[in-house]
Amino acid sequence: MMTTKEEKRELLHRQWEEQIAECESSNMPVREWCAVNSITTFILPFRRV
Predict the structure, then answer these.
(1) Contact, 33 vs 26, CB < 8 A?
(2) Max Cα separation, the chain?
(3) Can you give the pLDDT at residue 11?
């Protein structure tokens, strides 16, 4: 059984995965997509392994 903390972390990861998929399918540069979607880019660049 997951704890509340684990559930929150899992939800956050799913949200990130959805946002990354939306960004990739938009064919927009990452920084532009983030600006349009009001997402800060202080953690960029990110690398997918």
Answers:
(1) yes
(2) 40
(3) 93
Residue 44 has pLDDT above 60, yes or no: no
Amino acid at 20: I
30: alpha, beta or left, given left = phi > 0 and alpha = psi -120 to 50?
A: alpha
d(CA 35, CA 47): 19
CA distance 15 to 29: 20
C-alpha–C-alpha distance, residues 49 and 46, integer Å: 10
What pLDDT, in 10s, does the model give residues 26-40? 999 998 999 999 988
Q: What is the dihedral of CA 41, 42, 44, 48, to 10 degrees?
A: -100
